[in-house]
Amino acid sequence: MCSDLSEERLKFIKNIFPAVQGVKDYKKILCRPDVHAVCIATPTDTHYAFVKEALEHDKHVLCEKPLAMTPEECRTIMDLAGKKKKTLMVGHVFIFNAGIIRLKEYIRAGELGTIHYAHSQRTNLGPFRYDVNAMWDLAPHDISIFNFLFDSAPVSVSAHGQKCLGPSLDDLAFITLEYPGRILVNVHVSWLDPKKVRQITIVGDKKMVLWDDLDNVGPIHLYDKHVERTATFYQTYGEFQLLSREGSITIPKVVSHEPLKGQNHYFVECVRQNKNPVLADGQKGLDVVRVLCAAQESMEKRGIPVDIR
Description:
Elements: E1 2-3, H1 7-16, E2 22-23, H2 27-30, E3 37-40, H3 47-56, E4 60-64, H4 71-84, E5 88-91, H5 98-109, E6 115-125, H6 134-150, E7 156-162, E8 172-179, E9 183-190, E10 192-204, E11 208-212, E12 220-229, E13 242-250, H7 259-273, H8 282-300, E14 306-307
Parallel strand pairs: 1-2, 3-4, 4-5, 6-9
Antiparallel strand pairs: 6-10, 7-8, 7-14, 8-9, 10-11, 11-12, 12-13
């Protein structure tokens, strides 16, 4: 079953999936005892209420990102899911992307060496949202990706935004995240850009890597590039030199698969096996929301860093 307030949307779903029953009133789904799990893909500011209501009706829940609008709301529904013994998962779909998984493998294996910094760009001309700003719309993807890659949430954040198209919502944002180990990450998100870009660059002291989600041929480019010091000890600046080492560029074969399908399969398996969806559970959702709230606070204070430890 599916629910939507738009009759036109329900007809569209019916044409694609004739066996799916569509209803306007979502409560008809929650009240059915033969429905064991629901997926919530509604405007961000409705997530908390819908997730809470679904859990109260003893449903397992997969909720689109972000989980809620405040850490307190996240904790409330996490506690409720625990009390009801129901699976609660957040739709951090990019952690099921084959390219992101390959980045994780490089980092875990030490292929890149010590990570110095990373940056991401997620831009396009639209689509525009009217419930949340560009940061809340787009940055959850990148924050969840970096938390996944570095096995940690950041310890501090600073951010700047800009209202270009109207007085209420920021259409773009630049976010700086500091992760443990002095890893610095910059995230650029925008609804107002001439080109659709979905890229991440990670720079280590051994190698560097670029992920381009829109490159269907080779989304991963691994650069054998690093910098060497000519001396381990020096007394004057004249004795100190840095030499760049240029190596090969490797484009590994990455077997593509549909991340959304992988995410949904993972959710169903967790429900069936009564397992915690550790890749994207309530805690992972809370971690992302804490960063978003801290970044919003920093934006409102004109970029002052906010500690989130």
